Amino acid sequence: MNIDQGLPYYELTAGEAIERLQSDSNGLSEEEARNRLKRFGENKLPEKGKANIFKLIFKQFKDFLVLILAIAAVISYLTGHMVDVYVIIGVIVVNATIGFVQEYRAEKSIESLKKLVKHKATVLRQGERFIVEARELVPGDIVLLDEGLSIPADARLIRKKNLQVVEASLTGESLPVDKDPEPLEEGTSVADRTNMVFKGTHVARGSGKAIITATGENTELGKIAESLKEVEDKESSFRKKTARLAKIMAGIAVSTALIVFLTGYFIRDFDFDDILLVTIATLVSSIPEGLPAVLSIVLAIGANRMARQNAIIREFTATETAGSLNVIISDKTGTITKGILTIKKLFLADGKEYDVTGDGYETKGDIMSGDSVVDIKDNRFLAKSLIIAEKCNDASLKEKDEDDNERDILGDPTEVALLVLAKKTGIISLPEFSDIELIDDLPFNSEQKFRASLISYPDKHREKIFVGAPEKILSVSDRILSPEGHEKLSEEKKQEISGKIKDLSSRSMRVVAHAFKDGGEQDDEINPDDAHELVFVGLYGIIDPPRPEVKLAVEECKSAGIRVIMATGDHADTAEAIARETGILENGSGSEDCPAVFDEQMLDVDDETLDRYTRCGSVFARVNPQNKLRIAKSLQGKNILIGMTGDGVNDAPALKVADVGIAMGQKGTDVARDASQIVLSDDNFASIVNAIKEGRIVFRNVRQTSFFLITTNFASTLTLIAAIAIGFTYPLLPTQILWINLVTDGVMDVSLATEPGHGDSMDHKPLKKDEPILNKQIIPYLLIIVPVMVSLALLVFNHYQGESVEKARTGVFLVVGMTQVFNAFNMRSLRQSAFSIGFFRNKWIILAFFASLALQFAAIKLPFLKEIFHFRDLAWPDILIITALSSLVFGFGELYKAIRKKLRKIREVR
Ligand code: ADP
Ligand code: MG
Fold it and tell me: Which residue's alpha carbon is at the smallest distance from atom 26 of ligand 1?
């Protein structure tokens, strides 16, 4: 087989293309597909490394840091301090290694998260439909095209139904183009090859079937892969916040280092070389070079925790944005409800209501009229209704064997429900119906709100059958099924049916109507404009109970100051009933000013009125994608962040507009997923709330880690300034400062980044969109902790000064290092005691504590290091006493928290 020889595929007929690809209109066999996969390779494009924003900041810091350290090394060299030169080089290497390892791990975990969102495709293999991963596709595979599909490979069209494809990613043309399988002339350009579909473009509308002609790098997209752009990162407020923080911290570093220099050189008249080295060491230690790595780690950990709770982050910074959401606009079906739709009621043209037994997707159950099982054979109404259920349907239930409960269920849940109903009755196995042929099919979409099929009975008589939203079907019906045939659909009958729709809906049922009309013998196509003059058959009442965990999640949102809005395509009464069950609507809500439910017609208003509605409304029913976009835009005020869920192609604009677009991983289309920052792998509303929780923890950890870095940097610099100012000599040597910096900035800060939640992240209102990372909460810590740290250092220096300056520095080295390490325990929570949040709950910080302890002691005790750092012997009792004294920092932190809590209580009582 040589798939590249001969005329280009667009010049061939579909049949010739299939032949050339040695395939079959039923698809390849499993075995052949496997062989071809080996031969042609996976269907994927070479991945491009993406420049990561944090890496960039990191690099700049690093470069700057290395530059300063290099200057320090040169000065040390020129002044003959060879040992210092080696130490500084050592610091550069260790710093780079720590930074690299941290970055690398964060990067890896993000990469593996990205792989969780896989593109899939439906293929025919020997006549059966299978869902496979897009990268397993091979030339010759027959793929089915559906609305919202991101086309997985280049393919020659075989069949189409209203197929329109958006090829902007390939040709730049943003309007959808019509596709048709007819062969084209020689020399037709890519943009005009209407009988081909191309990898990376997507189906805007309609459906089709195509045979793959090229995969991976051989596709048109693969040929231009270099110019490919990744999904652009949303202008993220988190980036602005962190950039601001970095600037502030760099500013503090430079100005305090300058003070060190000025006091040392001008007031104390220290040697220029010496004071310069000390200044440089101060600068190096207070530059937050660890910050970018910490930020990546916090986000990566947050993203991983979210993934474990079924929210997969596609865009890194959305992890934090999720934490500040003020409003969630959610779908109903499948997100708030279970999405396992089951038909429980039938209301038919004979005026009777039937009950259906059996649960979920189990195909066992009966149709009951009152207490007796109905025999479908003698019931013309039921038979018609069930044939429509079975045939106006694109879902499939694959039963493996007799009592194997495991089934492969494919298709739209509404259609699965219809199919399950039909299978329960075995309608299609009745002899008179067993040979009904499906000629053509028109898929459902949420604007047109119905689906339809053209079928042919064994006697060659054709029928067009319709299933859809009840008002829609009712509005295009003018007759109703009757015992003799059909009769005019009178106003009264219409009223009666409308009453029934309302009745079923208010019992939280999703209502779907069905109807039919005769199909002309010549017709072999069905189109949207066929929906008129239908014969009404009846209603299916479908239950889809709310997910049990949603109620709690909604409650949590309320206590966290997050508004939950339901925007659904379903009927107002169904929406209202589910909203009440889940607590989205509270008892009694709904007034003249602000009705409980806003319906389609009510949304047809000017922007101002809509703004009023969105300010108060919680349930929007019968919305279409345009409404969704308008609702999102209307809500998106200055300081309001909205999260929006969606699944269809038409939801993409709203998902893009939302601050956090949330796509459904199961029922969602590729297009919706590609437009979102978060993909829910379980489609569950509760997962959104969990993601928000993790997002809040992310922000808190960023804040706490920055507070840690700032307080410790302040303390060590102030120790230097104070010592110099009161007339001591340098309390620390440059190399000693650098070592302490490695211990705190390189080890402790990372462990703070892993701090888990304390169960209080949903107790407060969402933070403002532009909430700075640094805020006044740090002031008490600066006022309490920093003075304790500085005075301890000075005391120790003073104590040993008489013996020798070197010994005094050894003591100060230990104090400064250990107070910083203990301060990390303060920063695990800014409000709660480390004991109430579980002292040992963050095992990383315990580990980091011992690692830091070991590093500090090693520097003092190991002969080799001791030599390098110019330390003097410090006896173990002294070491232990100093370490114990250092823990005072933690004690004072706890004391502050306890007093703060008391004061709060007193204030509350008043
Ligand atoms: P949602 O999924 O938010 O409930 P949709 O726009 O998908 O809203 O559906 C709107 C209405 O269209 C439903 O209430 C139902 O009556 C009807 N409907 C939905 N899906 C199908 C389908 N696959 N086939 C026929 N009718 C459907
Ligand atoms: Mg739907």
Answer: 468
